[in-house]
Design brief:
It comes from Streptacidiphilus monticola. By secondary structure, the protein is an all-alpha fold. It is built from 14 helices and no strands.
Length: 276
């Protein structure tokens, strides 16, 4: 009796029917959905009766969207936004579903809803251009990593991720690197950040760049040195040998090495001085 009463009230498609649809348990909504869809299939699309019953079917299956959102719990997109996108997917599933094919509605609807959410995440949450395939790999790796971590009680290693996702280690590393394109934020620290903030973590001038500039400037002057001068220069500043060790290596006195070094430096110094 209760089954027929609930079904009759839902089929009425009025405001009370929508209230009842919202109050149904997930199991009860899943039980009644096939009958509602069969009736919807019999109605003429675009008629008031069709629109009212369509709205009831969608309301009955909102729990399906909420369940799928748990797979995207780590997304930085607000849950309310994802819920709206998921409902769009649910509506598409209801409109495309054919109950005469014998398929369960949830089996048909889940990929449609999930695809709509993935498409939204792919198109709206990347702050730099990332190829579509890499974006999809990133989402697959993220979900797989979370599932394995829950099952193993620890973070999975690269081999385990490779086996579970079917991706190569290079593809997994690429997907993890791509995740950096999904976040952006203010350079100033927020209320929940340490006093260092993001500003303090920005890169500073790299002293190695100055070395590169110096080497480029010295290149013509170095080319003018003879073989022995270049050897002494390399032993002193490359191998960091003392003048005495260099003299022993070349069979000359330490004083002679010192004179050669001074002459070399006198030749090289003008190349590093700024020109007016």
């Amino acid at each position: 009796m209760e089954d027929r009463t609930d079904l009759s009230r839902l089929l009425a498609g009025d405001a009370a029917a929508e209230d009842l649809a919202r109050s149904l348990s997930t199991a009860r909504a899943r039980e009644l959905t096939p009958r509602l869809l069969r009736r919807l299939h019999e109605l003429e699309p675009g008629t008031p009766a069709y629109s009212r019953l369509r709205s009831v079917v969608i309301t009955c299956n909102l729990s399906l969207v909420r369940a799928l959102l748990r797979r995207f719990a780590t997304s930085q997109v607000p849950r309310e936004d994802l819920m709206q996108v998921g409902v769009v997917g649910l509506i598409k599933a209801v409109d495309r579903f054919d109950p005469l094919r014998g398929m369960q509605f949830s089996t048909f609807a889940v990929p449609t809803i999930e695809g709509e959410i993935k498409r939204h995440l792919r198109d709206t949450t990347w702050h730099a251009h990332v190829p579509r395939g890499v974006q999809e790999n990133h989402l697959r790796v993220q979900r797989t990593r979370e599932g394995l971590a829950a099952r193993l009680g620890r973070s999975p290693d690269l081999t385990e991720l490779t086996e579970a996702t079917g991706l190569t280690p290079a593809e997994i590393r690429e997907a993890d690197t791509a995740a950096q394109a999904r976040t952006s934020g203010s350079l100033e620290p927020g209320a929940d950040e340490s006093t260092l903030g993001l500003v303090r973590r920005l890169g500073d001038s790299d002293p190695e760049l100055e070395k590169c500039e110096a080497l480029i400037a010295l290149k013509p002057a170095l080319a003018r040195l003879d073989d022995r001068e270049r050897t002494i220069l390399e032993l002193r500043f490359g191998a960091e040998l003392t003048q005495k060790q260099i003299g022993r290596h070349l069979g000359i006195s330490q004083m002679h090495v010192s004179r050669i070094l001074n002459r070399i430096l006198d030749q090289l110094r003008p190349a590093l001085l700024p020109t007016n």
